[in-house]
Amino acid sequence: MPRRPDLDALRGLLLVLMTLTHLPTRLNAYTSQPFGFVSAAEGFVFLSAFLVGGTHVKAWDAPGKLWRGLRRRALKVYAHHVGLLCFAFTFIGAVGWLTHRPAVLNLLDFFHQEPLTALLSSLVLLYCPPLLDILPLYVVLLFLTPFVLTAARHAGWGKVVCLSALVWLWAQLGLKRELYGVLGAVSWLPMKVDHSGAFDLFAWQFLWVLGVWRGSLRARAAGSPASPPRHQWVLAWGVVVVFLLARYEVPGVQLLTRWPVLLDKWTLAPLRLVNFLALALLADRGAPLVYRWLRPRVLELLGSASLPVFSAHLVLCLLSLALINESEAPLDSLEEVAVLAVTFAGMVVVALHHQRRTAALTG
User: Fold this and answer.
1) Integer Cα distance of 200 and 308 in angstroms
2) Domain boundaries of the chain, sorted by first residue
3) What distance in Å separates the CA atoms of residue 7 and residue 280, rounded to the nearest whole number?
4) Of 141, 137, 161, which is closest to residue 151 (Cα–Cα)?
5) Which of 48, 75, 322 is CA-nearest to residue 208?
6) CA 143/CA 9 separation, integer angstroms
7) Is 39 left (phi over 0), alpha (psi -120 to 50) or beta?
8) Contact 209, 160 (CB under 8 A)
9) Per-residue pLDDT for 269 more than 90?
10) What count of Cα atoms within 13 Å lies in the side-chain half-sphere of residue 204?
11) Is Membrane given among the entry's keywords (predicted)?
12) Within its chain, how far is the Cα of 169 from the centroid?
């Protein structure tokens, strides 16, 4: 699949939304779910899977190349994760211990209680502190992707997607908690499900498989993809509008919010999944049009360097948490502006460095 600048720009937008959500400013109240019961995380995971599926589908006939490419990518993401863990456990951990800042202490509470256990279990992705729990998800999913593509080649995408959907359904019934209970009973690690990170791998793998599936189909399709039937457009618009109104508590559609378990983000609950799929259908056709109209070069720059920019944003978000004092009072307006300016300037600098380094290596 050739590089699509509109998808880079979309990834850049999702990175901006995630950064605004993670920073301790008042803006995070508006950026966590701006388009309904969907966050930037769902879009980022699906889009990453879509690009992985489109990039590696041509390696189906060369299994060795497929496995090497995805293993290399997974190890690269893992290296970024280990680097972030080292930064969090050393510098951020020391800041929390010396200054008694509650935001930092709460972030690394298990590490402060059981430092050796936390270190060892974090390296095998069993302990994932808050903010540092999405890259482990990517590592595991990237390692699983060769199995997904190989199974799809031999058994067909229908069976693969159905099996993934069954695992997702089991996740809704508490698969992750059951497995961590067994793990805690049979191992020496005093692990609890609360230490494993917010994202439920067994639920989010379904979104990843859907993304790989759609990306591989798009890459294999000859010519431009066919436009969805009109009734699908109408249905998608209807679903998106209803969920958007419910998200902002417009009278008459608040019925959806009476069952929060069906909208849970971390288990990718059923109604949230429906909301995302409808929004993704609209974005699939709308992203190229919006890109041609706005030409968001900065977003494209950020999206083209998504992994280093994502890692940089986590470093800056961790540092910003150290600014919250003992009383946990929110930052004042000047501090918020400074945090936002430094964070986004740092992300752009990292993206520019990555762009120049890539150009030097390929040129």
Assistant:
1) 24
2) 5-362
3) 12
4) 161
5) 48
6) 26
7) beta
8) yes
9) yes
10) 29
11) yes
12) 20
What distance in Å separates the CA atoms of residue 7 and residue 21, rounded to the nearest whole number?
Answer: 21
* C-alpha of 345 from chain center: 22
Map tokens 């695992």 to a residue.
167
Cα of 305 vs its chain's centroid, Å? 15
- As a whole number of angstroms, the distance between CA 291 and CA 271 comes to 29
Write out pLDDT tens, residues 72-126: 999 999 999 999 999 999 999 998 888 888 888 889 999 989 899 899 999 999 9
* Angle, CA 228 vertex, CA 223 and CA 231 arms, to 5°: 165
Structure tokens at 253: 């559609």
**CA torsion 301→303→306→308, rounded to 10°?**
20
User: For 163-173, b where at least 16 C-beta lie within 10 A, e where not — what string?
Assistant: ebeeebeebbe
Residue whose entry in the numeric block shows the structure tokens 């510098």: 91
How far, CA to CA in Å, does 121 sit from each of 17, 107, 129, 188?
Answer: 30, 16, 11, 11
> Among 90, 108, 2, which Cα is nearest to 51's?
2
Distance CA 278, CA 199 (A): 22
Q: Is the Cα torsion angle 303, 283, 163, 202 positive or negative in sign?
A: positive
Residue 307 has pLDDT above 80, yes or no: yes
Half-sphere exposure of residue 157, counting CA atoms within 13 Å on the CB side? 12
DSSP letter at 88?
I
Tokens standing for residue 243: 């969920």
pLDDT tens-digit map of 281-301: 999 888 778 878 888 899 999
